[in-house]
Every structure is written in structure tokens, then in C-alpha cells.
Amino acid sequence: MEFVLVGQPYGGRSTIFNEVAGYRAGSKNQPGAVEDHAHGEVELDGERAGLVDLPGIYSLQLSDDAADPAVEHLLEAPPDTVIVNVVDASVLSRSLELTLQIAELGRPYVVALNMMDEARRKGVRIHVARLSEILGVPVVETVARSGEGIRDLFRAALRAGHEARSPAVVPAPPRLEEAIGDLVRLLADHVPPGRFGPRLLAIKLIERDPTARRLLDPHLPKDVWPAIEARLAELEATTGQATDDLMSAARHTVAYKLFEKVAVVRSTGRRDLRDRLDDVFMHPVLGYVVLIAVLAASFALVFRVGNAVEPVFLDQFDRLAAQLAARLGEGTLAYAVVHGIVAGLGGGVGIVVPYLLPFFVVLAVLEDSGYLPRIACLLDNLMHRIGLHGTSVLPLVMGYGCSVPGILATRVLKGRDRLITAALTTLIPCSARMTLIFGLVGFYISLEAALLIYVVDLLIIGLAGKVMSTFLPDDSPALILEIPRYHLPGPVVVAKKTWFRLEEFIVIVWPLLVVGSVVLELIDFYDLSASINGCLAPYTVQFLGFPAAVGITFLFGILRKELALVLLFAALGTTDIDLVMTRGQIVAYTFFATFYLPCLATFAALAKVVGVRNTAVLGVVTLTVISLLTAGISHVFG
Amino acid sequence: MTRRLSECQRGDRVRILRVESGRGARLHLTNLGVAEGRVVDVLGGTPFGGPVIVRNGDTEAAIGFGLAERILVEDGAEDAEG
What we know:
The complex is a heterodimer.
Chain A: E1 2-7, H1 13-20, E2 38-44, E3 47-53, H2 69-75, E4 81-88, H3 92-104, E5 109-114, H4 116-121, E6 124-126, H5 128-135, E7 139-141, H6 150-163, H7 174-187, H8 198-206, H9 210-216, H10 224-239, H11 243-262, E8 263-265, H12 273-281, H13 286-328, H14 333-369, H15 372-378, H16 380-385, H17 393-399, H18 403-408, H19 415-425, H20 431-444, H21 447-471, E9 480-482, H22 491-525, H23 529-543, H24 551-559, H25 563-572, H26 577-580, H27 583-595, H28 600-610, H29 612-637
Parallel strand pairs in A: 1-3, 1-4, 4-5, 5-7
Antiparallel strand pairs in A: 2-3, 6-8
Helix pairs in contact in A: 3-11, 7-8, 7-10, 8-9, 13-14, 14-22, 17-19, 19-21, 20-21, 20-27, 22-28, 24-25, 27-29, 28-29
Chain B: E1 2-4, E2 13-19, H1 23-31, E3 39-45, E4 52-56, E5 59-63, H2 65-68, E6 71-75
Antiparallel strand pairs in B: 1-6, 2-3, 2-6, 3-4, 4-5
């Protein structure tokens, strides 16, 4: 048996999932799919069942331009699936519109009236038994954040799965119900085998959902289609409305009537503090002041924590390396391999713990509090300048911490928005690249020059965005975004979110770091640097204008950006870089080493999110453009 | 008086007359309570052509400026369902 959590965004689905899922096995999706479903398992009273958390959906009604994998997953779920409809009880009327559509599927489901605490605070009283009776399914009150009612919810789901009873049919308004009846008669004996009953198909036809046509086409005799179209046209003529609008309007009305039957609102009339927060946070002027303050404070916190903690970890690994050298003998092949493994693991810890951990915590707090969508809203117009929407802000901001989670965050975007945002995220200097910029330009030239690189980078991103959106014109409509209520972030929710993100990062990045480090140790062991530098010389020396010795650092830089800096000192045999390189060369080198290609882990994330082909194209284009710009810098300032 | 949602001010209460957009955007707006016949409160806009924020019942939605320009509204008092 499998439970599928279905609900509108911000309804608490994922909180329930995190609360009960025993483990989180990776996604079953192919690269390029919109968003991964989280899979887990629940164990209850000695029985085990699968658990799937689908991304939030408002409606099962599909538009023709974009297929929704979450809806498809639900429509194609196996027969022993029990749908757990997670409803935000504090916005019951709206949430019931989705519940009505779930009821139309005719499969067993249970309703979780979640956020009951919030509903009670708002003065909403819900007659649970009456709602359960009308829908013909179990309804359980829950507060996911505190775990209240969760056990009862899954017990009810388990029972519903065993009984496999069909839920009640909630009739549509009479005029629509007549049309549904007529269509059901037309479809009569031609209903394809599968999970779509005639009533659901009839409703989908009225919604003009392409799924219905696709499913019916092979089974329905050709002469039935005109009759169906005629009936739909008749409905449009009598109501003066498009049938799909008619259907959603009808659901709105039915849901509202249902809400009135089962709920009483005794409004407290008081304006909550949270309602007043937006008077400042979303204020046309003050909103931006707050935004800049929040972002600055977030980054300051992350870097402060990171800088304080990083040496502690690095010291540990340095000590371990020294012990290994004593044990295995420096200069042996065994030492090279083991040291490579240790350095790779250490590199993982050196990035993860100091910078990513605090970064993810801050991010989860921003997300859980409800501020994140407001950032998207505030920056929407800015993003429009580069052909994107406010929803692309999050990956870009995350990119300043690490490109990998930034790119993974683009999975919530679709099509060209995702491709462009992922490409631009690779151009954001992550914390590792920051050490390069500040360690070279910041140290040998000036802090202002280092900051100038950040400004130039933003210009390049803006330009790249503009160019890409010229080639890939905007096919998506303007921003439509729900602005959720503010919440006090829960420590458990924040901790679990942070952990899931870290886990994903570790799975992708760590193996690459270890393999990469071993390769580098072997290059060193067999003394291949000189020949590699020789091979790269026509490019690095003649085209880019660098000293021959730096060639090898670019190879290291692909594995880990900040390694380029360490290796530069080693390759040039001095830490007084300004003695062997001109200022122009230092700027050009920093620029090139930062941007020529993202690191290997970023490539892996890119391939996962936008596919291998797009990743390869992006790599080639980036390398070409950055090379040309670098050559320009070298020849003008060098 | 008929006007566009993009021209509305903070504090306006308006009834949605028509949404002149593709099916996808219309569906998405409907899900957030912005559909023909419904009444929404305008909570404000962001400067320089940023999104317009509206509230319908308990749901707040930000609507990109370009789309708000394609939503016709009139001064509204009561919601369709009363």
C-alpha cells in the first residue's frame, strides 16, 4: 500500500512527511523532471506502507501548455494507493476545491484537517463528523507541527486502504450535473480500461483537459466526438461561459456551500501582528530596506560562522594527513592515494560544515517563516529585466553559498526559466570562489577591486540573462505567486529541511571530491604537472597571457575552486604573487579561475537538473566567452 | 468604473470582470481566488512595475504587473456568493 500526500502549497504536507517518513530514498525521477517527489516509508501497528510527498498543487485541472508531474503521478498511481489530502483548515473553503477534485477520482482518500491550531485561533469551528459524512471518507484533525493527530490520520488511511471503499460523489450544480450525465451516456461502453471512470472522464472533457482526449481517442468511435463537442457547445451557449471556467466556478461555489455547512467562523476581528508585518515588509520603500538588511544579515552570519569554524576542521585534517605521512611514508603511491581520499573527505567537510550548514539553516528559516515568496515578489520587476520572474531569485541567492544547492533549487521552475536560472546560478561566485577573489585580487590589489569583480559579475549575469532570454523567449505568463501567512519557524522543520538539503549535497559532491583528490595526488605522484602545463601552454600562455606554471591550477580548479589558489602558490613557488605576475595578470587570472568553468560537482548538479546535453552546451559557451573576456583583460591591462 | 487591476490602489475593493490571458494563467489565478465575478482587496503594488498583491478571502496572491494589466475590474462591493 502507498500513501500519497496531496495538498495545496503551504498546507503542511511536507511537515507531515518529515514527521513520519522513516527515511528518504532519492527521487525516482529522470533528470529534467520538474520537481522530485519525496519517497519514504511509514510503519504503523506492524504494517509498512510507502509514503510519497507530491509537490503542492492547487488543482488537478491541467492547462494545455504545461504538464504537471504531480498531477500525472496522482492520476497514474497504482490501485492500492490511498490519497491523504492535507488541507489547511484555516483556509478551508479554498482547500475544499482541491478536495472535491480528489473526490472525483473515485479512489479511497482521507482528509487531514491540518493547522487546526491556526484555524481555532482564527475562530473557525469545523464540524468534522458532518464533513466526513458528506465526503464519505475519514476526516482527521491534525497539527503537523506538533505531531497532533498524525498517528490517527495514518491509522485512518490504513483502514481506508484495506476497506477500499469508494468515496461519496459530491454533485455539481444542476446545469453541470445534467451535462456530466449526458456525456457519461455518450461515453457509455467506450470507456478505456484503467483508473478513469466515465464520470471523471466527463468532468475532464468539460474542463477541456487534454488527458481526457488522449485517453479516449483510441477507444471512442469517431462519430461520438461530434456529439461530445455539440454537448459542450450547448453548455457554453446556455451559460455564456467557457466550459472550463464553468467547472472551476462551480467547484468554487460547491466548496463554499460545503464550507458553510460544516464550519462556523466567529471572527475575532482583531488584526494579528502578522497581518501588520507586511505593512513594513512589503512596503514599496521600506520593504526593500528590510530585504537588503535581511540578506546582508544572512550572509554576514553565514560567513562569520564559516570563518570561525573552518580552521578547526582544516586543522584536524592537516593533523590526520601528517600522521598518514609518518605511517605510510611520504612519497609512496599508497600515501598518495590515501592522502587523496583524506583530502577529498576533508574538502567535503571543509565546505559543508562551515558554510553550507549555517547557510541552509538561514534559508530554511526564511522559507518556513514565509518571507521567501515575499523576496520573490519584491524582486520580480528586477528579474524581469533579464527575462525571468521573481521565482528565480532563490536559486541565485543560494548560489552565493554553493552552486550545487542553488542549481538543485531550480527544480521548482519549468522549461526555459529553469535552464536560464540554472545557467546564471553557475555564474554566481560561491563561497569557494569568494576565497579566490578575496585571496588574490582582494589581497594583492585592493578590496575595492575585489568588490568590483562582484559588480562586473552581476553585469555579466544580467547580460547573459538578456542574451539567453532573446534566444529562448518567455513562454510563461507573468508571475502568479501565493503570499502565505507568516509562521514562526519550527526548529524541527528547520532541522529536517536543512538535513535533507545537506544530504542531497553530500550524495552528489562528496564522491566527486574524493575521486578528484585522488586523481590530483596521482598527477603529483607521477610528476605530470610539467607535461600538463606544456600541453596547456598554447592556450594558457599564448592566448590567455598567463605564466606557463599556472596551467595545472585550472585542472585543480575544476575539482575545487579554492584549490586553484593553494596550487597557484605551489606552482609559482612563492606567496608573493605580485612579484611574478602583473596586476593585470592577477585580475585576469582571478576572473578566469573563478568563472571559466563551474566545479565538477556543479556540473553533476546541472546534468541532473537540465540534462547532459544542455550542460555540455553551457560548459562550452561559458568557457569560450570567459576565455575571450580574459584574453581581453590580459591584453589591455597585462 | 471599469479599469485594469494594474491601475488599482492599495485599499481598493474590486470585482474581477475579465481575465484576458492564456488558459494556464487563468487557471492558476482561479486557484488563488482571482476569477471572474469574485471580489478582491488590493493590498498594494511594488514600485517600477512590480507585482500587484490582492487578497480574496484568506488567500493573498502576487500577480505580475504585465498580467495585472490584462485583468479588467470594476469597483465591487459584495462577492458573487454573497
